[in-house]
């Protein structure tokens, strides 16, 4: 047909929407659904729309990656937050054994990796609290361990110093 085809990630999403692609149907030869493409493009609006229409948050493509892996790979904290809020599996591993947090860290998106690891830790603690598991975390430390609290406090102080410094620049 004479219609000119759009290029780029947003164009691909627009083409899918115009064609009425099924929400969980693989949209390309790699088995990526429209939700994968939205997450990979950092397109939070399109991803939200996909989630509202029933997209499978944990559908894996040919690399074993779900939309959460794609969002982590491109450093889209906005997409990651949407996926986590929708109960995407944070600990899901791709074919290489990597979680979304592993990918975020590998690509240098430290804030995304920290968000995913903190969320996963919180979910683990909630599950253990509900199931009557031991109060030890994955590192064998007691929840009230002073060393863990000190490290957490130092991290918080470091973040506060960074915010203060960046706030000084604005003033």
UniProtKB/TrEMBL annotation:
Xref: Pfam families: Ank_2
ANK repeats: 30-62, 63-95
Entry-linked InterPro entries: Ank_Repeat/CDKN_Inhibitor (IPR050776), Ankyrin_rpt (IPR002110), Ankyrin_rpt-contain_sf (IPR036770)
SMART domains: ANK
Keyword Repeat among record annotations: yes
Keywords: ANK repeat, Repeat
Stretches for region Disordered: 126-171
GO cellular component annotations of the record: cytosol; male germ cell nucleus; mitochondrion; nucleoplasm
Protein name per Swiss-Prot or TrEMBL: Ankyrin repeat domain 37
């Amino acid at each position: 047909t004479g219609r000119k085809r759009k290029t780029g990630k947003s164009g691909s999403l627009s083409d899918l929407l115009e064609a009425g692609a099924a929400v969980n149907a693989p949209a390309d030869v790699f088995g990526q659904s429209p939700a994968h493409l939205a997450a990979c493009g950092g397109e939070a609006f399109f991803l939200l729309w996909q989630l509202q229409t029933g997209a499978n948050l944990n559908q894996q493509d040919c690399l074993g990656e779900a939309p959460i892996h794609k969002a982590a790979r491109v450093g889209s904290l906005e997409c990651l937050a949407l996926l986590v809020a929708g109960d995407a599996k944070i600990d899901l591993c791709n074919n290489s054994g990597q979680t979304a947090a592993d990918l975020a860290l590998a690509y240098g998106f430290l804030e995304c990796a920290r968000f995913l690891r903190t969320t996963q830790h919180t979910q683990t603690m909630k599950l253990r609290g509900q199931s009557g598991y031991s109060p030890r975390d994955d590192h064998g430390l007691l929840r009230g361990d002073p060393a863990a609290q000190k490290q957490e406090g130092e991290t918080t102080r470091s973040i506060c110093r960074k915010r203060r410094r960046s706030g000084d620049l604005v003033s």
